[in-house]
Amino acid sequence: MQIDFIFSILILIFSVIVHEVSHGFAAYLQGDNTAKFAGRLTLNPLSHLEWFGSFLLPVMSYFLGGFIIGWAKPVPFNPYNLRNQRWGESIVAFAGPAANICLALIFGLLIRFGVLIQFGEAFVQIAVMIVFINLILATFNLIPIPPLDGSKILFSVLPNSLLEVRSFLERNSIFILIFFIFFLWQFILPLVSLEFSLITGFAL
């Protein structure tokens, strides 16, 4: 149990770092150097981690709910510097979950095609944790509640006639997010389990 917990925390830390660096790199490719100048286009954990989201919350979620969730410090970017003013912010937002999906696909397909089994069961179990944690991160961050990435994607396609919806979500984001985590999280885990099965060919 302790070994699984340690590996889960390490995988989470690596995954959230990849998530945040992907945001910054997507902005950089569109002409915004904010993340680069802030020293955030690096995989060095010291540049990204924070005590609550990267350590305390994962420990609490593991022992209270049996799953791992957390985050790193958001990578800064200036939307006004992006070359694509129409879709640039949503591209930056989607880059984080997309990176987690890519990690889940890579290790999930290694599981599906039995590539890792020749190295031992331990490698398979680590790959399972990588897929599961990255699917949780991607799915959770795509929920359209501020400040999650899904809200920025939603706002980019929201017509002007529904700007009141954006204002409502932004004003009440913390309460909506807390409500979701406590009362609707149960619907996320079955979705993640389905995603896991589709990628790996195995049930959790």
From TrEMBL:
Pfam families recorded: Peptidase_M50
A GO BP entry: proteolysis
Membrane topology: Multi-pass membrane protein
InterPro entries: Metallopeptidase_M50B, Peptidase_M50, Rip2-like
Gene Ontology MF: a single term: metallopeptidase activity
Domain Peptidase M50, first and last residues per copy: 9-162
TM regions (residue ranges): 6-29, 49-71, 91-111, 123-143, 174-194
GO cellular component terms listed in the entry, alphabetical order: plasma membrane
Taxonomy, superkingdom: Bacteria
Cofactors that this protein relies on: Zn(2+)
Major localization class: membrane
Keyword list, A-Z: Cell membrane, Hydrolase, Membrane, Metal-binding, Metalloprotease, Protease, Transmembrane, Transmembrane helix, Zinc
Similarity comment text for this entry: Belongs to the peptidase M50B family.
Protein name, UniProt field: Peptidase M50 domain-containing protein
Organism: Candidatus Zambryskibacteria bacterium RIFCSPHIGHO2_02_38_10.5
